[in-house]
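Follow-up to my post from last week.
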Amino acid sequence: MAQPYQPGKVRLPVQFAASAALVWQLLAASPAAADVALPAEGSAVAAPAGGETPRDLSKYKEESVPGGDLMILAYLVMWGLLGGFAVRMALRQGKLEREIASLQDRLDRGA
Amino acid sequence: MLTVSPSSATGAPLPSSAAPPAVGSVRNLNLALGFSTALVVGVLAWVMFVTPADTNLGIVQKIFYFHVGTAFGMLLCLVGASACAAIDLMSPSEPIDAAGRALTEVGLVCALAVLTSGPLWARKSWGTWWTWEPRLTLTLLVSLVALAVMILRDIAGDSAQGRKIANSLAVLAAPMAYLIHIAVQKWGGTHPQVLQGGGISSSDMRIAFWGSVAAVLAMCFSLAALRYRTLRSEGQIQLLRLELSARELRRNRKEAA
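User reply:
Got it. Predicted complex:
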């Protein structure tokens, strides 16, 4: 049966977090951010345009991007997202099963 | 959510679907989650302590293993969600709908992981966080589609119309996933082509790669099963509440008579 839209019932924490992450992605992808991130003209690590990724190591190392920090951050975010989703769902499932047991109990007592 | 008939609240017997739906065993679900977590930890240890660092990129290249795994997970989940949406459009079914919603949510979580780990790798590899190249742009678009489907489903509630609109949108994920797959070959771009571009030469790296793909896919499957169970339990609660209300109504009518 179609039900009217009930704003009070709509809780979207996951969607809100997902929206925030996507907005962050868009901000990071904005021209301003790209300008800051792009190295000087002629640098070996300039963003390639449709070709192969440049790999001139001598100039590449000069920029000194902290690879270890980036890797740790990437792993934290990746597993944080998947782990957070798993924990949230497990907690929710526990709550739902307690509610099912309680409702079933009320039904059995009523019968 | 389950769509329930109001006739059940008027004294008529409840539909057979009011019986608690079989939502799988908790023990099996816990086993699947435990197995996938153990696999992830094992592969993570292999990637960190056994796999050598890339000679060109250094340690940051290790992002690649799980980045590709989550990308596979995203594509499979969204294609699965798309198939469920198509089936549900043709013949509406609560289990198929719940499976589609679960896969969409897990696919979106994977997409967020991909869209976050990718720029972190790109900063070191390409010197920029992001470029609007075809594969990246399509991945962002498919994530936005998945997000829109989730929000639509939450807002629509039990509305059959809302469910149809969300399913119609979800169907788009499959062709978009195919476009993501062929984007680099078709339109070029900077994204590396590891599998199509000759594969991985080091055996330790190969084990890390396929191990991480298997671990992430196992995790995605477990999470989708957990979310499916949650959605089915919510439907079960709705039916139990309806049955309680129906009994109360019958009792009140009897007392009034």
